[in-house]
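Technical annex, item 7. During the second reporting period the consortium partners agreed on a shared format for inverse folding records so that results from different sites could be compared directly. Each record opens with the tokenized structure and is followed by the designed sequence. A conforming record, contributed by the partner at site C, is shown below for reference.
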């Protein structure tokens, strides 16, 4: 059992992990890749580098520093967070238990660019099978996605109906994912989501498919997906936190780009430090109960 599971190894996550480890806590940091920062070659506005530094270098150094101090780091993709008595963080390979969780997964990704998509959010288009699946029991459901996260949503939706169509929106489907799908599979690119008051059909380049509800589970879950599934508030695609970086769900914290504000390295690292201090205090309150 970890004291803290940090999801994300960018400036927010690694900075938090470093502070937490120095509080002598048991810390696990999970990261799927080098994140946003790893994609940029020129950082000129971060303190203490005379010459331009690459984002990749910063991330790698941050992770190495965390590991040197004793943080356990794993390169895995998180596909779900559950909150029972403790937290269970599920990756594509493992499940980890923690007393608290810090989400530091960067800015939420943009949604799909399909005509009608935005119009039907909340009117048949949903981002959370656990939250909304029940509404569509014994109805026609579509799921858009092409990776483990989609399988996770599919598993939940199978409890409510047998009439499910999986749409990959033209994206490739790895063999190990395809093997898990027993439902109707549509791989054509999507053209439009149509309906009246609510969603009625999905139009692809070649066909039309009737649906009563459409669940979006594309690629890797973002900070918003995690928040939604666990009941944490979001606003304008950002996780809402209090002055201690805690969400409305006790023991669930968030830091960095995923909470908005200045979307820069310096602020993400600062968030991580603040969150770590607050988490350390929070863990002490658990011990006294
Ligand atoms: C093109 C570009 C240029 C930029 N230039 C600058 C600049 O010059 N100066 C500056 O200060 N800022 C710059 N930024 C912004 C900066 O990159 C971000 O503000 C900063 O990286 C945010 O840090 P973060 O830790 O919140 O998120 P990120 O750096 O995005 O890290 C997110 C972490 O979460 C992990 N993650 C995400 N989802 C999952 C999952 N499901 N499972 C496991 N791990 C997951 C990722 O692997 C990564 O480790 C730039 C951004 C871009 C896109």
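Designed sequence (site C submission):
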């Amino acid at each position: 059992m970890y004291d803290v599971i940090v999801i994300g190894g960018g400036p927010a996550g690694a900075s938090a992990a470093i502070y937490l480890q120095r509080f002598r806590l048991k810390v696990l940091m999970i990261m799927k890749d080098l994140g946003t920062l790893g994609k940029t070659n020129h950082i000129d506005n971060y303190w203490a580098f005379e010459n331009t530094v690459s984002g990749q270098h910063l991330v790698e150094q941050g992770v190495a520093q965390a590991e040197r101090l004793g943080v356990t780091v794993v390169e895995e993709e998180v596909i779900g967070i559950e909150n029972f008595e403790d937290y269970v963080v599920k990756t594509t390979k493992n499940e980890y238990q923690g007393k608290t969780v810090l989400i530091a997964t960067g800015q939420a990704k943009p949604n799909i660019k399909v005509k009608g998509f935005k119009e039907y959010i909340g009117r048949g288009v949903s981002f959370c099978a656990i939250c909304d699946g029940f509404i569509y029991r014994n109805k026609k459901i579509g799921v858009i996605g092409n990776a483990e996260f989609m399988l996770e949503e599919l598993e939940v939706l199978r409890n409510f109906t047998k009439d499910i169509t999986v749409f990959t929106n033209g994206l490739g489907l790895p063999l190990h994912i395809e093997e898990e799908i027993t439902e109707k599979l549509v791989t054509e690119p999507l053209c439009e989501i149509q309906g009246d008051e609510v969603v009625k059909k999905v139009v692809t380049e070649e066909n039309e498919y009737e649906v009563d509800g459409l669940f979006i589970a594309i690629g890797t879950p973002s900070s918003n997906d995690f928040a939604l599934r666990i009941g944490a508030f979001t606003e304008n695609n950002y996780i809402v936190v209090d002055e201690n970086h805690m969400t409305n769900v006790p023991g669930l914290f968030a830091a960095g780009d995923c909470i908005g504000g200045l979307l820069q390295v310096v602020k993400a690292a600062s968030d991580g430090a603040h969150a770590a201090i607050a988490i350390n205090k929070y863990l002490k309150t658990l011990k006294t109960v």
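The chain has a mean pLDDT of 94. The chain has two domains: 2-109+221-288, 118-216. All partners now use this format for quarterly exchanges.
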